[in-house]
Amino acid sequence: MEEAKRGTPPERPVRVYADGIFDVFHSGHARALMQAKCLFPNTHLIVGVCSDDLTHKYKGFTVMNEDERYDAIRHCRYVDEVVRNAPWTLTPEFLAKHRIDFVAHDDIPYSSAGSDDVYKHIKEAGMFAPTQRTEGISTSDIITRIVRDYDVYVRRNLQRGYTAKELNVSFINEKKYHLQERVDKVKRKVRDVEEKSKEFVQKVEEKSIDLIQKWEEKSREFIGNFLQMFGPEGALKHMLKEGKGRMLQAISPRQSPSSSPTREERSPSPTFRLPFFSKTSPPPSPRPHHSGARGYLISEDDEEEVEDDEDEN
Asked: Where are the annotated segments for Disordered (predicted)?
């Protein structure tokens, strides 16, 4: 064992043998073969598979037949050689025939064929190399799952086209399974409707929350704009004040002067032109009048007013 662990020449690999039923080949089987292959640096793994007759005699009925089990092992990447119709108990002749150096198996005593441990003599000879079982998975565990959910798998296979005869199901049970399948379909439809209804309600709630949030934001914005326009210090108040001031300024009369303006302070009246003069002939020039030394230009109206003042004097 120590020499094999140190390594052997490439032309002389350590020949390790592992046997079993390997029914419903699963990851637990593959891990056990991987451990056997990795026991030594240079390993040639030989796997023995027992026949249907021997297995049914000592262990019980199998799910897969022997050819299917041989083929499953042959396709495992850790296996270098497959021995068909392997013996239940290893004899010296079998070990010598296949030049087996070590036998790999889990260390739990395997009682069968009237023996407390079929690997006892291998262990005593120092040829036993223990491996570890993978907890939680085995052929018995898988079969237990199928038996436990028997009705489910029967209905599954009936739905997939298997006949009641192929499944060894009676006529009454076949009708019962079909009825259960219809009931389950109705239940699934009801669950789908419930889930869709929940999703719809959830979407409506989400949209309602969004609408409420948007409404609140718009409401706050509207209230702010309203207060800004119509509040105590709003823009409308300032506009009304300005408008009121302009209106009062527009309708209030100007203050009358305390005394009549003198002749010199009066502003000259504008010179008017009659409309018909603009087309036929130019308007007559106003007569110039000079008053005093300043020489103001006086219109006809001013001239009449001056004459009236002279008469009063």
From this structure: 250-313
